[in-house]
Design a protein that fits this description.
- By secondary structure, the protein is an alpha/beta fold.
- The protein has two domains: about 5-10 and about 55-155 and about 260-355, Periplasmic binding protein-like II (D-Maltodextrin-Binding Protein, domain 2); about 155-250, 3-Layer(aba) Sandwich (D-Maltodextrin-Binding Protein, domain 2), CATH 3.40.190.
- The chain contains 15 helices and twelve strands.
- The chain has helices at about 5-20, 35-55, 60-65, 80-90, 90-100, 115-125, 135-140, 185-200, 215-225, 235-240, 270-275, 275-295, 295-310, 310-320, 330-340; strands at about 30, 70-75, 105-110, 130, 145-155, 155-160, 180, 210, 230-235, 245-250, 265-270, 325.
- It has a seven-stranded mixed sheet with strand order 1-3-2-4-11-5-12, with helices on both faces. It has a five-stranded mixed sheet with strand order 8-7-9-6-10, with helices on both faces.
- β7 (about 180), α8 (about 185-200) and β8 (about 210) form a beta-alpha-beta unit.
- It is globular, with a radius of gyration of 20 Å.
- The two termini are about 30 Å apart.
C-alpha cells in the first residue's frame, strides 16, 4: 500500500480524535442572533426532547420550521472573499425572511482545513462548508453526507522557497526539506502530486516532506526559515512573491490554472432534503455575492479587505487576479486523477455523483 494511504490513515485518526475534543480553538463570527457555536452545540442534544415537549415541533435545520439556524464553515484566504459579502450584507438572513416570513440565525465558523469541516458535517454541527475541491471530492466519495452545491473561486497557486539551492522538484526529492501546506489530502497536496506527475515523478514522491500548516502559519514559517517551502494560494502567494529573499518553483503554478475549480461549497444532504427553502436561499446568496465580486470589484474590495487584513488597494488587485464563479471547472477530471493516484479509493461514475442537481460545470 502506498505511503500516502498510511499518511491518510494517520490523518483520519487525528481527525477523529479532534472531533472528540471539539472545536474550541477555532475562530468564529456569528450573524443574526449572534448565537455562539458552543451554545448551538450544547442545545443540539436536548433539541429532540424540547420538540416533543412542544407538541412535535421539528428542528428547523432539518425541516424548515419557523425557527431556523444555519451553521457555515469556511477557511482562510481571498478564495473565500464572496462569503465576506454574504456575511456583511446579511444576504441569507434577508432572503430567508423574504421567502418564508421567518428568521434564520447564521453562524460562521472559521476552520483550518477541509478535514475539520468534514468532521463537523459528519457530526451534524455544520450544515454547509467551503473547502478545497480535493477534500470535497474525498468527502463525497467517503459518504460524509454532503454534495457540492456551488463553485466559489479559482485562484493562483505556487510553491515558494527560501533556499537558493532549491530550483526544482529534483532538489527536493530525497531531501529533508519541509514543505508547508494545509493538510495531507488537501487541494494543495493533490496539486503537488499533479505537478510531480507532470514533471515525470511519482505523484507521492514528496509526501514525507509535507508538514501541515494553515496558510498564514505556513507563510510565517517560510519567512522565518522554519520550513524550506510553502505551497499556497492567494493572497499569500502574491505576498510571498514580493519578498526578495524568496523565489518560486514553477512546476506547481503550471499544474492547475486560475480557471480550474479551487474552492467549492458543500451542503449536507440533510439540509438539502429536509429544508429546501433554506438550501435555495443559501445557493442564491452565494450567486448574488459572486455577481457582486465580478460586477463591483471596487466596492467588494472595501468590504473584503477588512476580513482579509489587506489594504483596499492590494485587495482590489488580488480580486482582479482571481476568478469567482458558481460553475465548476475540471471537477470530474480532478476526481479521476485522485482515484488513479489513490487519494480516493474509487472514481465517481459521473459528474452528477459529486454535485446536487442545481450545479453546472464539468
Amino acid at each position: 500500500m502506498k505511503k500516502y494511504v498510511r499518511l491518510l490513515a494517520i490523518c483520519l485518526g487525528i481527525t477523529v480524535m479532534a472531533a472528540g475534543c471539539g472545536n474550541s480553538g477555532q475562530a468564529q463570527k456569528t450573524s443574526g442572533n449572534q448565537a455562539a457555536q458552543g451554545q448551538a452545540e450544547d442545545s443540539t442534544g436536548s433539541q429532540a426532547a424540547e420538540d416533543e415537549a412542544d407538541g412535535g415541533n421539528q428542528d428547523a435545520d432539518n425541516t424548515g420550521g419557523e425557527e431556523a439556524t444555519l451553521n457555515i464553515a469556511y477557511q482562510y484566504g481571498l478564495a473565500y472573499a464572496p462569503l465576506s459579502i454574504v456575511k456583511e450584507q446579511e444576504l441569507i438572513e434577508k432572503a430567508y425572511e423574504e421567502a418564508t416570513g421567518n428568521k434564520v440565525t447564521v453562524t460562521w465558523n472559521q476552520m483550518s482545513s477541509g478535514a475539520d469541516i468534514n468532521t463537523g458535517i459528519s457530526a451534524g454541527s455544520i450544515d454547509a462548508g467551503f473547502m478545497g475541491v480535493g477534500p470535497a471530492v474525498t468527502g463525497v466519495m467517503k459518504g460524509v453526507g454532503y454534495k457540492i452545491f456551488t463553485n466559489l473561486s479559482g485562484q493562483e497557486h505556487g510553491i515558494m522557497t527560501n533556499d537558493d539551492r532549491i530550483q526544482s522538484f529534483e532538489d527536493l526529492i530525497g531531501s529533508s526539506n519541509q514543505i508547508a501546506l494545509v493538510n495531507i489530502g488537501s487541494f494543495q497536496h493533490i496539486l503537488l502530486a499533479m505537478a510531480l506527475e507532470n514533471a515525470g515523478y511519482d505523484p507521492h514522491a514528496l509526501d514525507s516532506n509535507i508538514v501541515a500548516m494553515a496558510h498564514p502559519d505556513g507563510m510565517a514559517a517560510l519567512e522565518s526559515g522554519n520550513v524550506s517551502c510553502h505551497l499556497t494560494s492567494s493572497p499569500y502567494i502574491f505576498k510571498e512573491r514580493e519578498e526578495g529573499n524568496l523565489h518560486e518553483i514553477m512546476d506547481v503554478a503550471e499544474a492547475w490554472g486560475v480557471d480550474g475549480s479551487f474552492i467549492v461549497g458543500v451542503a449536507s444532504e440533510r439540509m438539502h432534503d429536509n429544508n429546501p427553502e433554506l438550501y435555495q436561499v443559501l445557493c442564491d446568496a452565494i450567486a448574488e455575492a459572486v455577481d457582486f465580486m465580478n460586477n463591483s470589484p471596487e466596492e467588494a474590495a472595501k468590504i473584503t479587505c477588512e476580513f482579509d487584513g489587506n489594504s483596499e488597494e492590494d485587495e482590489l488587485a488580488y480580486i482582479q487576479k482571481s476568478k469567482y464563479t458558481i460553475e465548476t471547472k475540471g471537477l470530474f477530471e480532478l476526481a479521476s486523477f485522485m482515484a488513479r493516484t489513490e487519494f480516493i479509493e474509487e472514481a465517481p461514475g459521473s459528474y452528477e455523483d459529486l454535485v446536487f442537481e442545481n450545479v453546472k460545470g464539468d
